[in-house]
Design brief:
A: two-stranded antiparallel ribbon, 10 strands, B: mainly alpha, Formate dehydrogenase/DMSO reductase fold, two-stranded antiparallel ribbon, 13 helices
């Protein structure tokens, strides 16, 4: 299931982000009539069509997989958890309709109505992602119900479930991440072309759009991540402790950069410890007490602490690295009033794309592995939610295999698309 | 609204979703089947016609399944759990089929020739098997092969969905999809002035209509033999809808023979809707015979209200959007290449 998700989230990033780039390019094309903008808009629309198709099917599989792998969670909590998915399905439906109109209507609709269809794609995609984040957020901070003495659900409110405390922070963080992955991926593709031919106007402009989007969101993402961490510290303190590798509950809690968690010795070794910084970051003052892992029984903590702490630090490091890339771009480009195109700069841009993707996947590892052992935080453990069927492992393997085929094929096809010169068919 | 009224209301929406999935998405599946089974001198033109017809709407069509499953999950979670455990295999297989159908279609329109052909074949095969698994799984809830005792689901991994009724239902869904697709494609071909192609699809439609009719009759026999509770439900509640379905199906065949294609399509859609209604009416008050009832599986009224509201608002938004999509693209003009313009 996690494997499905790892693949799906990559396509999601493009599903959310690429229509934005596409609409921007089309906007410029409509205003200026410039051939390069027109070509970029059309090429990105084509790439988007492929990515949306694959993202859509991987999402369908996830929807089918949920009740198949987690029937006990669905049975008990479906009344709360299912509703945001239903709303997401509607948004998704709408997005698919706009997509159909957009792709097939290019030469039929007038330019501005066509552009609005593209805006419709972005808007419904964004709304869908908010609802999906509401569903995940509910798993992290379950609200909208009470439990009777016998453990039965009462006072069920699916609307309250959607407006759970995690939702706004998760949604913003994910949406920013999607735009970053998309932006840097576009920039990477075009940086590769620019390395071969600096005069390629099409590549130069494509890289500019990608970079500007990615780099604009990078500092915003640092803020969004910070806000999310504060919320996690409040509502899922065990997860925060795991993220930070913090063992002892203490005031003036240190921020640990790097390091490996050694569970048997109950310490985190090898990192740089900055005293007081964690207390400051999550509670606003240096002397605040931050709960460490020792505040929770080991059965209520994630089992694989390094699978939470290491991805977290990796994600943050990459995030700051991308901010750094932004500064490099600003400084180097300001003097010459154009985007830098030196060999090392372009190589850094090319690295930014896989880096952003690693950050995205790491972030999801942090939140989902950090959520363990719970599938509904504090209410249901993952092991209690899983299907009792034993043969399911075979199918897990099948799905992984299928996704591998899909990922490789999509990657190959998109590379082909990117390499075709402007103005060629297919 | 009372809780039971809400339950019926939500089920009605789910039923509409299932019907629309069959009528619209089913036609897409059928299109894929005709692509796979294209033969004869007009083979290439058949394939182009299918691709052009499916192109604008296929993304939209396969969202129906999520729409149905998400509503079921939110409104009748216990039923979803039973289905999830009891029918995971056919649903996973259908899921894999959907993956390959979607990506197959996307990939078959870009890239080198041999790559396109391989993916096109994948698309075709997936289009054939996915409706079979969905139909077999759908019928399985009525066969009594999925039991729930003390919160535990008991069902054979394969036997739960391979009873005679399930097999016949799966085949019937395949036949329905290919018939629906063929009947649409006749009109599409005629609109582009390709009357040979229209005749080719007419012949195909006639054959599949007869096959579907035979399977439907077989299905009734299977219900009588294999699913006594469903049969009882049919005798008491479901027979008007089933009768209507038979009449509409026959009417479609007659209209097809007489080349009245609009009537043929309308009656085909009516037949499908009537089967869904008849099945639902016959299944009532169960969701999974015999241990999961509508009442027992339902979420609290607050959730049912939210789901119902969601469907109403969703319908109000999606209805016009759908209409717009179909109007712009089925107005009969020749299509540009799928996946947009040549850059």
């Amino acid at each position: 299931m996690a494997v499905s998700f790892i693949f799906h989230i990559f396509f999601v990033a493009f599903g959310i982000g690429l229509p934005g780039a596409m609409s921007f390019a089309e906007f410029r094309a409509n205003l200026t009539g410039d051939q390069v903008w027109i070509a970029l808009a059309r090429k990105w629309a084509k790439g988007f069509a492929i990515l949306f198709a694959v993202g859509a099917v991987s999402g369908t599989i996830l929807s089918i997989s949920l009740p198949l792998f987690w029937p006990r969670m669905m049975g008990r909590w479906g009344a709360l958890f299912g509703f945001p998915f239903m709303l997401e399905a509607f948004c998704f439906f709408l997005e698919a309709i706009f997509l159909g109109i957009y792709l097939y209507g290019w030469d039929r609709l007038a330019p501005w109505p066509h552009w609005w269809a593209g805006v419709g794609i972005s808007a419904s995609g964004l709304l869908a992602s908010v609802f999906v984040m509401a569903a995940n957020g509910w798993m992290q901070t379950p609200v909208g119900f009470t439990l009777t003495a016998s453990g039965a659900l009462a006072d069920v409110s699916p609307w309250k479930a959607i407006l759970n405390p995690s939702m706004p922070f998760e949604a913003v963080h994910m949406i920013f991440a999607a735009y970053m992955v998309m932006g840097f991926s576009l920039a990477c593709i075009y940086a590769r072309r620019l390395l071969r031919d600096r005069t390629d106007r099409y590549a130069r402009r494509g890289m500019a759009v990608g970079l500007v989007i990615g780099l604009a969101f990078a500092p915003l993402q640092v803020v969004a991540g910070d806000r999310l961490a504060v919320q996690v510290a409040r509502d899922q303190p065990a997860k925060l402790a795991a993220m930070e590798g913090l063992w002892r509950t203490q005031a003036r809690a240190p921020e640990t950069i790097g390091g490996i968690v050694v569970a048997s010795r109950q310490e985190t070794v090898g990192g740089i410890h900055i005293p007081g910084l964690l207390s400051l970051l999550v509670h606003g003052h240096v002397n605040a007490t931050v709960r460490g892992l020792d505040a929770f029984p080991s059965s209520d903590r994630p089992a694989d602490l390094n699978l939470v702490h290491v991805p977290f630090d990796l994600m943050v490091a990459i995030g700051f690295g991308l901010v750094g890339l932004g500064l490099w771009t600003l400084i180097a480009g300001w003097r010459r009033r154009r985007l830098p195109d030196g060999k090392w700069f372009l190589r850094a841009v090319m690295v930014s794309a896989p880096a952003a993707l690693v950050a995205l996947e790491s972030g999801w590892m942090v939140t989902e592995i950090g959520r363990q052992p719970w599938i509904v935080y504090n209410y249901m453990r993952t092991i209690d939610a899983a299907t009792s069927r034993t043969g399911i492992w075979v199918w897990l393997a099948v799905i992984v295999g299928v996704y591998l085929v899909l990922a490789v094929s999509t990657g190959w096809l998109l590379t082909l698309l990117a390499d075709r010169p402007i103005g060629s068919p297919a | 609204m009372t809780s039971s009224a809400l339950q019926v209301g939500v089920l009605a929406f789910i039923g509409v979703g299932v019907t629309l999935y069959l009528v619209l998405g089913g036609a897409d599946f059928g299109g894929g089947m005709w692509d796979l089974l294209a033969f004869g001198p007009s083979r290439d033109r058949q394939r182009v016609l299918v691709a052009d017809a499916i192109g604008p709407v296929w993304e939209v069509n396969h969202v129906w399944l999520i729409f149905i499953l998400a509503g079921l999950l939110a409104a009748f979670p216990q039923a979803m759990a039973a289905i999830g455990v009891g029918l995971y295999l056919p649903l996973l297989l259908a899921g894999v089929g959907i993956i390959f159908r979607g990506s197959g279609f996307a990939f078959s329109h870009a890239g080198p020739g041999s790559w396109q052909r391989a993916w096109a074949r994948t698309f075709g095969i997936a289009s054939l098997v996915t409706p079979f698994f969905l139909g077999a799984a759908g019928a399985a809830v009525a066969t009594g092969k999925i039991r729930v005792r003390d919160g535990q689901v008991h069902a054979g991994v394969v036997s739960a969905w391979t009873s005679p009724l399930s097999i016949v239902s799966g085949l019937l869904v395949v036949a329905m999809c290919s018939y629906l697709a063929a009947s649409y494609l006749i009109v599409e071909a005629a609109q582009r002035g390709d009357h040979d192609l229209a005749e080719a699809f007419r012949a195909r439609a006639l054959v599949t209509a007869v096959v579907a009719g035979a399977l439907a009759a077989l299905g009734l026999a299977a219900i009588r033999a294999d699913a006594p509770l469903l049969w009882q439900g049919m005798l008491h509640r479901g027979f008007p809808a089933i009768g209507l379905s038979a009449a509409a199906g026959l009417g479609s065949l007659v209209a097809l023979w007489g080349r009245r294609y609009l009537v043929a399509r309308a009656t085909a859609a009516l037949a499908v809707a009537a089967v869904v209604l008849g099945f639902g009416a016959s299944l009532w008050p169960y969701l999974v015979i015999p241990d999961v009832s509508v009442q027992g599986a339902a979420s609290p009224a607050s959730t049912l209200r939210a789901v119902f509201f969601g469907y109403v608002v969703g319908g109000l938004v999606l209805g016009p959007a759908f209409w717009l999509l179909f109007r712009v693209f089925k107005s009969g003009r020749a299509q540009p290449t799928p996946f947009g313009p040549a850059p």
